[in-house]
């Protein structure tokens, strides 16, 4: 059974997509802890990030860098925080979270609510700054 993230990659489930290439996909987290909170995933379905082969893992980090640079142009912040947990979805992913202070990277913080229109605008702003 494909993971929810594979179904997003395949377009079976909608997402606020930021970017994709042959191997990677980036999209807004549906329950953001900060405006612009984004997930970056490999298209290959692997649960634990350290089970990815070296090439896929390093490529994932480079794709996350490109995505993070686009986020910081679109969303006011001091820098982009990076987190990997995978406690909920068994498909390796990197969280990119715009930070103003260290407390912003706390996943116990209340989730933010944005309307679909606002999510579309956030995704479009990030997308327009993404350089492949
Ligand atoms: P983790 O597995 O790293 O603990 O958390 C998974 C993350 O994926 C959570 O932040 C959650 O909000 C996000 N997430 C779970 N299901 C979906 C979904 O269907 N669409 C999107 N865009 N994000 C999701």
Question: What tags apply to this protein structure?
Answer:
alpha+beta; 3 helices; 132 residues; HIT family, subunit A
> What CATH architecture label applies?
2-Layer Sandwich
In CATH, what is the class?
A: Alpha Beta
Overall number of strands: 5
* N-to-C span: 31 Å
- Rounded to an integer, what's the Rg over CA atoms? 14 Å
Number of domains: 1
Oligomer: single chain
| Classification by helices and strands | alpha+beta
Q: Give the helix proportion (percent range).
A: 25-40%
**Low-confidence spans: pLDDT under 50, at least 5 residues?**
none
Question: What order do the SSEs take from the amino end to the carboxyl end, as H and E?
Answer: HEEEHEEH
Q: Quote the beta fraction.
A: 15-25%
Looking at CATH, which topology would you report?
HIT family, subunit A
- Biggest beta-sheet profile: 5 strands, antiparallel
Q: Give the overall average pLDDT.
A: 98
**Unique bound compounds:** guanosine-5'-monophosphate
Q: How many helices does DSSP assign?
A: 3
Overall morphology: globular
Strand order of the largest sheet: 1-2-3-5-4
- Classified in CATH, the superfamily is HIT-like
